[in-house]
Amino acid sequence: MEKEQWKDEVLNSLKVMKPAEPNAFLFTRIEARLQKPVVISGWQLGIATIVLVLMLMINALIVFRTERSMQPLNQEYRISGFQSL
Amino acid sequence: LTETELIHKVAAQDAFAFRALFESYKSLVYNTSLKYLQNISDAEDLTQDVFIEINRSASHFKGESSVKTWIYRITVNKCLDQLRHRNRKKRFGFLTSLFAKDSGELIIDVPHFHHPGVLLENKEKAALLFKLIDQLPEKQKTAFFLAHVDELPQKEVAEIMNVSVKAVESLIQRAKANIRNELEKHYPEQRDLHE
């Protein structure tokens, strides 16, 4: 019984707390951060360029392979088309 | 001026509106962060991050939920991100300590957190509760903080967490059961302290 009461007291121990006050200069700090321009560093730009180049290369490779695999099919289609005439 | 109008003004970069919004919600954001992160300096940094996010994404606020719910959601998500980052760092610290030559023992335990608003007679119990909450899974932790500690209605908690009311109910019950189980282990030492 005593144990259960203690458990309830622990569980409810945060219910009666007063809200804490943040630092008085918090808003000034936020304002300062908002006024700071967003700077993109050299390495961030480098990584973005590498990713873009890689994506373009993969895209080109996929398009090239698809075109190659479609070619024999197109020829076959044309031949069968002539035969039907 | 309604809160939605205030947000629209913030989106239009109105400095006075942003200040007014900060004054209305600074306590909610700071106290929520403080409960999650259990560190004053981290909670202040996170409060800054939240208000910067609010300022930058105010134009995306669609009014589907209340401003309070929206701000709560941003704060909770940022707190959980910060905790995940902290856990990753802790794991990485554990790995590096395995290879450190001079490390005799490993210190990864979080010190007891004493919330500045907790009453003196509740200090020890609250510190123990904070320690146990810290071990809960993310969703149980959020449901417990919002519904049990902040005493928000379950419907509002469900909206903030983007889950159903039934899910919130079950999360709170599981959180309480887990804490009670852990308290079982701590009771003998508490009894010894009082004897």
Quick gist of this model?
The complex is a heterodimer of chains A (85) and B (195). Chain A has helices spanning 2-11, 26-35, 42-84.
Radius of gyration of chain B: 19 Å
List the chains of the largest interface with their residue counts.
A-B, 23 and 37 residues
Q: Which regions of chain A are unreliable across 5 or more consecutive residues at pLDDT < 50? A: none
Total strands of chain A: 0
The average pLDDT of chain A is 84
* Structural class by secondary-structure content of chain A: mainly alpha
**Rg of chain A (C-alpha, Å):** 34 Å
Number of strands of chain B: 0
Please give the largest β-sheet of chain A. Answer: none
Count of DSSP helices of chain A? Answer: 3
The averaged pLDDT of chain B comes out at 88
Keywords:
heterodimer, A: 85 residues, mainly alpha, 3 helices, B: 195 residues, 74% helix, globular
Written overview of the protein:
The complex is a heterodimer of chains A (85) and B (195). Chain A contains three helices and no strands. Chain A is mainly alpha-helical. The longest helix of chain A is centred in the last third of the chain and has 43 residues, at 42-84. Chain B contains eight helices and no strands. The termini of chain B are far apart. Chain B is an all-alpha fold and 195 residues long. The longest helix of chain B has 33 residues, at 67-99. Chain B is 74% helix and 0% strand. The interface between A and B is medium-sized, with 23 and 37 residues.
